[in-house]
Amino acid sequence: MLSQLALLPVLLPLIGAPACAVLRRPTAAWAFASTVAVLAFVAAAALLQATARQGVIHYAFGGWAAPWGIEYRIDLLNAFVLLLVSGIAAVVLVASRASVWHDIAENRRTLFYVACLLCLAGWLGIAATGDAFNLFVFLEISSLATYALVACGRDRQALVAAFNYLVMGTIGATFILIGIGFIYMLTGTLNMADLAQRLPGLGESRTVFAAYAFIVVGVCLKLALFPLHLWLPGAYTQAPAIVTAYVAATATKVALYVLIRFSFSVFHLESSRLALSLEAVFISLGVVAVFAGSLVAVFASNLKRALAWSSIAQIGYMAVGVGIGTVAGVQASLIHLFNHALMKGALFLALAAIAMRVGGNELQALRGIGRRMPLTSAAIVVAGISLIGVPGTAGFISKWYLVTAALAREQWLLALLIVAGSLLTAVYIWRFVETAWLDQNPAQPATPPQEAPPLLLAGTLLLALANIYFGLDTRLPVGTAAGAAAGLLGDSAAGLLGHPPAPLPGAGAP
Amino acid sequence: MNGAGLLFASLLLGPATVAGIVLLRHHPNLREGLTLAAGTALLAINLRILSALNAGTPPSWQSADLLPGLGLELAVEPLGMLFALIASSLWLVTTVYAIGYLRGHGETHQSRFYSFFALSITCVMGIAFAGNLLTLFLFYELLSLATWPLVVHAGTDRARHGGRVYLGVLLGTSILFFLPAIILTWATAESLTFTPGGVFGPSTPPALLAALLVLFVFGVGKAAMMPFHRWLPAAMVAPTPVSALLHAVAVVKAGVFTLVKIGVYIFGLDQLSGVASRELLLYLAGFSLLAASIVAMRQDNLKARLAYSTVSQLAYISLGILLAVPSGITGSGLHIAMHAFGKITLFFCAGAIMVAAHKTQVSELRGLGRQMPFTMGAFLLASLSIAGLPPTGGTWSKWYLLLGTLDAGALLLAGALIVSTLLNLVYLTLIPVRAFWPGGAEPAPAGKLQEAPLACCIAIGVTTAACLALFLFPQPLYALVSRIPGAGG
Amino acid sequence: MDVLSYFNYWVVVVLMMLGFFIVIARANLVKKLIGLNIFQTSVFILYISTGKVAGGAAPILTEGVTLYSNPLPHVLILTAIVVGIATTSVGLALVIRIHAAYGSVNQNDILQQDQQC
């Protein structure tokens, strides 16, 4: 019974997508897709409970035992990502109706929801599968659906953005395919748990390095880690408002999961000779991403574009955590993965609401929005200060763990750079605050308050409040991330270079 | 975990008041009645907490863990109690003043003003009753954010620029220095709880302690230690009640209060006196104190002059802590209170002059004594208190601070204190003197008696009386301050 | 010759670089997609060629045959081909819509038009 549960979060949207396509009325499609996402969320929550209680859950497809058959293997990390992705998807889809009705032509709405469900199936599949090739297939399912969703944008530039995304995404996926091919040739297996056992036996083979390099480059393209981020700003800015919220809070998170999964549980990066150079690569690229992304965001004239660049910066933080490479570092990365999804979910949902009311997200058009849409603007401020990392919000917890992890490795400069990055965040968030409350819109001097539609507003507020809730009650993200990181690296794992991890209060506690 | 209800009451009163203000936003009289009632209630709550503290059962509270092994904590100790009492009593007085000022000045967005005012005071209560550094940091940052709308209240380009400097410096220092210092403390000592005698073990590397002290002193930007003082003059674009309560009392005192807390409860005086970087910072404080006085002399804008005077006075308090001797701590604790009453009076007077005579520059005040004798008289007394001369409360704190420098054997700093006092007389006390006796060169403007609105005058009267009363009856304050660990009897 | 014994890898590398070059260097969106296809195909060949076992028969159970080629890479690549076709069709659909919206499938023209407005 429990092993069937492992299947459920993926199966629901995968079967739901074609079923949704036969529905005629768009409202029915919306209700159906929302229900599927909520059910997937419930299943994922049950799964997390089960894994926390009794460890890894296996499901062998068609009764073919691993490593011959395809296996779903849910450990704490998988369940964590499943819960996050399905949760965000549920909130966004339930809240999406008004914005989709505003952005998408009537005859396309049903198919729009089909694409959303396919996308969800892909993401959840990636997070659930224990098979490397299966992972590639799900990655492409979600990517193809995302290209289609991005192309639905109101502007014709959305088409170009989607095309660029398609080209770069496909190159990334093909790189991953090459890497998987190499390790299959070496070991004859595609099961990730099996790979993890066989790869160390091969020693320091050059093919193993090449395989890892291909996979890392491919995943980083999907993850939009600087300097492979070029597709992201266009795609996020031009996509329909609701798609940005849907994708920004989930797609890159799943890619980060893939990176962590391959780096630590398949390739055992922490004990490999490669570690030294990769540590430098991830940390330096991450730091550059933080500053480059934030700086562009500071000067962007469109809030949605600013936040897209901010995503690149935040991905940089997660890469830094991976680069630190200790249990504490990976834990920090996972915590930020969770928290960043909450922040960007709230921010992009709020932008969707604003786009409905003022017709765009140009800062010029947002003057005085604080009075017109007080609750939506307040949600942006709350999620924004969480992005900055003010204590009492989820972002603070991320920063705390990241800095602690850096300090434990005695990387003082890195710790300073991490906190300095949040100052730039403060600048672009405060540009919005000033525009929203201090500027008057000359075109509409005294527009009466006109809040977002109720469901959209509720979704936005829910995610914004989640930023505060998870800043004060951190058991779920911190506890799960701790367990997941410990599971990845082994409880007694040494640091990347074989340094024993410094005795760190707060790290590794279940 | 006893009596936590009182602490919650003091923290929840603010948000509850905001809700009330929003509901009553179309009824100014009811709204302001509510604010006054909230101020009274907060003072009453704090007095209850004081009696609990005196009875030996200080309320405390601990949350579930936020980070493993580390949660939010609330606790009451003498210094925090003192700070909470000052802030809440002056909030009440300032509210009276603000009603007169805002109506007299015809300010807009008054509901927003009162709301964020109440929120700011809540943050101050949080800082005062914080039981560990994490809790303190939480409210410290929230206070920066909650006061920003008050600073940019006018909405002009100047206000906006001031707001940027304000938030930039305060958030910048706290994120760049304060937060890393806290995390480093946690990683080293595995405790952030305010503990008499400090949290660091004897085996902590001295270099680390030295670095931490520097990070803390610069990180607590609200203490306005040079070179991170620019935010305070920038904040003067705010309406005068804001400058009076927040930027002469609540926010800046939160800064030096944090420093005292860190000195006494994180380092501990014994450990602090051995920290290598202490001496350097001590002389920086001495420099800050003199330099700010000299800059103040060159300001013609009255509020800017008061702001630089505050920078200078805050350096006194920082200096008192860094001396790491009992009399220094006593002096710092007393000066937090004495300076609060003195400086708020000065700001009240500045606001009254602005409302009644529409004058903002010092050079315009010559001969104003005829027109506003009450305000100018209060100004005179308060400036004496800032300078530390009888018959005002400031005498006692300056006395202990001077004693501290002598106890620590820092004669140079003792000299700096005395010189600065003289400068105080020149740039503050001379203003009312010129107002009453303009001198023969210019004919005195023929002003007829025109004081500020009654509410403003009441507030000024109350705080001036407090300055005088504290000269005669400093014992209650002293009793509280002397119970700070390390301050000694 | 040692080099020639790896000729399948050489084919893969040459095809891959060709495809990659076309994707990067061509401004025509259709040609980009063609390049992308060549790029993907090279990887398919990489997989399939490694499935061949020297002297092995086609993997169909037959009397008297003991050595079979590995069928798994074929199956995998069958899936990957489906993915590739789906990608190409989505890409072409986008190109058609871009052509309708801009009147051109040349990247430079499109960029120019975007900058003008």
Short summary:
The complex is a heterotrimer of chains A (510), B (489) and C (117). Chain B has 18 helices and 2 strands.
Output mean pLDDT of chain B: 87
User: Structural class from helices and strands of chain B?
Assistant: mainly alpha
Helix/strand order of chain B, N-terminal first: HHEEHHHHHHHHHHHHHHHH
The whole-number mean of residue pLDDT values of chain A reads 87
* Backbone CA Rg of chain B: 21 Å
Helices and strands of chain A, in order, run as: HHEEHHHHHHHHHHHHHHHHHHH
What does this structure look like?
The complex is a heterotrimer of chains A (510), B (489) and C (117). Chain A has 510 residues and is mostly helical. In chain A, 74% of the residues lie in helices and 2% in strands. Chain A has 21 helices and two strands. Chain A has a two-stranded antiparallel sheet with strand order 1-2. The longest helix of chain A has 32 residues, at 327-358. The model of chain A is unreliable at 491-510 (pLDDT under 50). Chain B has 489 residues and is mainly alpha-helical. Chain B has a domain at 277-489. In chain B, 72% of the residues lie in helices and 3% in strands. Chain B has a two-stranded antiparallel ribbon. The longest helix of chain B is centred in the middle third of the chain and has 33 residues, at 157-189. Chain B is globular, with a radius of gyration of 21 Å. Chain C is an all-alpha fold and 117 residues long. The model of chain C has no long low-confidence stretch (mean pLDDT 88). Chains in contact: A-B, A-C. The interface between A and B is medium-sized, with 35 and 34 residues.
